[in-house]
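[retry 2/3] NADPH-dependent 2,4-dienoyl-CoA reductase: previous attempt timed out, resubmitting with same input.
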Amino acid sequence: MSHPYPHIFEPLDLGFTRLKNRVLMGSMHTGLEEAKGGFEKMAAFYAARARGGVGLIVTGGISPNFRGRLTPHGSELSRFWHVKKHRIVTDAVHREEGKICLQILHAGRYAFHPFSLAPSAIKAPITPFKPRQMSERQIQNTIQHYARAARLAKEAGYDGVEIMGSEGYLINQFLCERTNKRTDKWGGSFEKRMQLPLEIIKAVREAAGEEFILIYRLSMLDLVEDGHKLEEVIQLGKAAEQAGATIINTGIGWHEARVPTIVTSVPRGAFSWITARLKQELQVPVVACNRINTPEIAEKILADGEADMISMARPLLADPDFVNKAEQGAPERINTCIACNQACLDHVFKNQRATCLVNPLACYETELVMRKVDSAKRIAVVGAGPAGMAFACYAAERGHEVHLFDQSEVIGGQFNYAKQIPGKEEFYETIRYFEHRLRETGVALHLGQSQSAAGLQKGRFDEVVLATGVKPRDLDIPGVDLPHVMSYLDVLRDHKEVGQRVAVIGAGGIGFDVSEYITTTESPSLDPDEWHKIWGIDKQYNNRGALLEQRLAEPNPRQVYLMQRKESKVGKGLGKTSGWVHRTTLRNKGVKMLNAVTYHRIVPEGIEIERDGEKQLLAVDNVIVCAGQLPLRPLQSELQSMGISTHVIGGADVAAELDAKRAIRQGAELAAII
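[retry 2/3] NADPH-dependent 2,4-dienoyl-CoA reductase: success.
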């Protein structure tokens, strides 16, 4: 039988060592690096991915010295006593026959502390601290610190290191005129600006020896003004190869770039074209990355000769067994990463531990454990939204007899609305995954059925779990019952006709989703060329940083007012790493975002509001209400009065913004102890 993904599973010979397949687990900071007992937890986390079939793992970024730390208490590898902790991780990975590299990352001006250093004393827009300009001595010391970190990494049992040269960190800062204004031998011409990465590669190679994987993460697209030119990227790639790099990995976009690079609205495999361009120029293997989340897209990139390896970070957070499932020819069983960032990057940027919205066990492998039960219970779950589905699968996996009821004919709950939002097509994948998982774990599914307390009592269930979700909050505004007033369900569930001029009440996640839905004719996430033009990415690479002079204006069929009562900035409560993308998208479509609004009344001509002491009538055809939700738990008190053990999870428990991350985690945590 021929394999469905022959290119993914072709071994890669690096000369002194061999990788069993073409999947690299990309670097990702988890927050365990600094946590108490974090190395033991990290060992379990990486071991699960090694067991899941990954060819080569790269750790989160570890600084080579104190000043390069990302945060004041960030991880560094600079002393012999650090080695022992790292051994816990490498031993765990090697026991699973995996290979692992340590990423060495110096934050430069991105450091979130007052001791930061950079090529020039220019503050980054994403941190409050202005760096000091590095002296010649500090530069020489830093080169030696990289070499020392590599030597210690080898002692700790790592199979190699990755030198982080992209995403706007220290090395990237030296490479670009934007951040390097030096006039000595480390600044000026590109030849001088690229001395730092080359000196580091040589020093690392000398310190660690020939038989040691050295990955250089090359910033192929800076996506900022005064970034690299294509010729410079090629020149540096070739020089890095000459200096001793074993593999060249792709870096896309600085953290301060105003172009999305990994959020869910970025088309799948959107940046493989630039890796393909570099691959033509280089001899060593090159790695494609960013928004590669299915075996199909990984296989296509490899088969088309665009790269020699595929890097995935978040998809392996979502499913540690991604590679094994692909190898078994069972891609439908993969828990697909939906690129939401809500539990991974958003957590890390708030100094919380990373995990995963669709896989709450990620980074909690030692704490949230699903052990087989001694005596099985008969459990009813009412509501097949994210919380109900997650609970049902985990509980059935542990050995309980689980019956899942929903009055709808389909599973998925609120995910069925989310998946229709342009740029959120990935939510289809989560529903597909749960369909297979429910079947696989033997959950009895009863769709199209409303439940009563008496019916559940008759079913003789030991426990009942209510995951009945939410209902839209009613607004207390005169005129709210007029025919041109709609709820978000009228739009996303019932697909009612919406007029040309619209006022949206409530600017939380649902208000933004509805605004996006009614202002988009065709989702650019499904058309990479269109998406590149909308975000101003120059695929011809004629300009520095690969930015177009002008962005393509997206057609918008409607005039929309997105309003909130709060005085804070509209969209402030959206995800830390993705909120700006939603705000920018709507702003570019001409959506008017109004804060500090008082709603007086809705009239046939539109809605009367007051702002800054001024009353005005917004003449609109429809008013769409997205003003939050209330928990829907109709059976709770009745079940409890019957003495039936009842648990409430998900939106039925707390209805604040539709929070799938909390819902799925709550389902998992209850399933682990029931």
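[retry 2/3] NADPH-dependent 2,4-dienoyl-CoA reductase: Residues 17-348 form a domain with the TIM Barrel fold (CATH 3.20.20.70).
[retry 2/3] clearing retry counter.
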